[in-house]
Structure formats: C-alpha cells, structure tokens
Amino acid sequence: MIGRQDIALVRSFNRLVTRQVGALNDRYLGRRPLGEARVLFEIGPNGATPRDVRARLGLDSGYLSRMIRSLQRDGLVEKRPNPTDRRTKRLCLTRAGRSEMRELDRISDELAASALTPLTDEQRVRLLRAQAEVRHLLAVSMVSIAPENPSSADARWCLAHYFAELGERFEERFDPGRTLPAESKDLIPPSGAFVLARFDGQPAGCGALKTLSPEIGEIMRMWVDRAHRGLGIGTRILDALEEQAVALGHRRVRLYTNRSLDEAKAMYCGNGYREVARYNDDPYADHWFEKRLAST
C-alpha cells in the first residue's frame, strides 16, 4: 500500500528536480525548448532514425515530427538515407547542430558543477550516491516485460537492432541469413513465445523461446537496448522466458552465444545455466548452455 505521504514526497522531489534543471523555462539552458535539446542529445554524433529517437525518449510520433521539423528549419538536423533500411531516413546533426551540441554540453556541465560547488566533499559523495540510486530505481520502475507478437512493429524494431549489434560486435562478419532461423510461427504458443521489454511504454529489449523437443526449449534473440542496460532487464527477460517454457511443458532450456558477448555469458552463468557440449550447428555459436527448470 502506497501512502499519501510517500506520494507527496515523490511529487515534492519531482518539483525540485524540474526547477533545478531548468525544465520550467521555455528555453532549456537559455538555448532551446527542453524537448528539442533532448532530441539533439539522442541523435548525437552517430545519428539515429526517428523511430529510434521516439522509442528511446517515449515521445508521441506527431510531437517528435514537429520538433524534428523545427530543428531542420534551424539548420541543426538533416535527414539522410539510412544505409541499413532504404525505407527509412537517418537523422544526423549538421555542422551547426554539432556546434549547438557542444554549447549545450558546456552549459550542462556548468549547471551540474553549480549544484555540487556549495556542498562539502562528504555532501557531494552523498548526493552523487543518492542520485545514482534514485536514477536506477526510477528507471527500474518504468520497465515492463510482457508477451508480444513477434511480427509486431515493436518486435521487429528490437530484432533489427539485435542483428545490427551482432554485426558490430562479432569478430567475424555476421550475416543474419546464416544464423539459425526463428520463424514467427515458432515463437508463439503452443510452439514457443516472444517477450518484449518496454521502458516507459516504448520497446527496450526482447527475447524468444522456441521448442526443440517436447521437453526442451531454446532461448534466443536476447537483446537489451544500450540506452537501458544496467537495469537488470536482461535477467527479467530471461526469467519471463523460463516461465513461458514451464507453461509449455519444457523441463530444460538451452541457449547459445558468441565468444564476443562476455556480458551475456556472465548473465547466463549467474542465472543457473551451465556450459554444455555443442548441440547445434549455428556458425556463430561458440558457447552452449543449459538449465533444468523447476516445475510449478
């Protein structure tokens, strides 16, 4: 039961933070509206698609489109062909946009320093620790995990980013067409399952389960968006898939991963998976794991 005093404390904290960061002013840091500044930060030096920005900031598509048009009119952002998907465009900062970003970074650093300067060394340490804890817990509270149709737009967005990251990280050249397939029909009950993690309602990660045999399931396509790592989302996806496996009658689950994905191997070992001998012929698999499930 959440008490009225707890709610009042959260609201008081929110009011203080919005005042301290300047969110109430019509021009954030004296430069631009806060929403436009956040979009610039999200596009960043590497660029992003409008879909990426909308997902990571939780923005309405119409509102985001208006902000992008405003940034384009001011010569800060331009749209370029997306080399990975010709159906979409990629947002990139112009020279003026990069200059604006540098100025926003400078002013933001000064604002952060101004909050720390009046404090003693001990108070700074306490504040920084408290802020880290608050950020983590608030972010965790914004995450949900639920079954999803693997053919949905949000699922496809996650899977596209999953494959793109494998292409970036694998030591060998990654070709999605060579890895073992997982058809949509194999990832829905009674054959399997697909779960999606959402952060503030927007896609943030995914995982899939398919049946290898009547008593054995296979977990695959595990991915968490970089913007939301460190919140335990991967473990929560893994737990959700194991629950789905038990519901489908699986006694064991298996999975495999590449030698480049050290954090994935650590997560599996930390959640009760043991390394086993090769059980498939995926060309990108270097490690194979298995876990016996506790029946409900």
Question: Structural class, judged by helices and strands?
Answer: alpha+beta
Number of strands: 9
Whole-angstrom Rg:
22 Å
Average pLDDT over all residues = 91
Q: What can you see in these coordinates?
A:
- The protein is of the alpha+beta class.
- The protein contains nine helices and nine strands.
- Strands 3-4-5-6-7-9-8 form a seven-stranded mixed beta sheet, sandwiched between helices.
Name the features.
alpha+beta; 9 helices; 45% helix; globular
Q: Which SSEs are present, and which pair or pack?
A:
Layout: H1 4-20, H2 34-43, H3 50-57, H4 61-73, E1 77-81, E2 89-93, H5 95-116, H6 121-141, E3 143-147, H7 153-169, E4 192-199, E5 202-213, E6 216-224, H8 233-247, E7 252-257, H9 262-270, E8 274-276, E9 287-292
Parallel strand pairs: 6-7
Antiparallel strand pairs: 1-2, 3-4, 4-5, 5-6, 7-9, 8-9
Sum this structure up briefly.
The chain has 296 residues and is an alpha+beta fold. It has 9 helices and 9 strands.
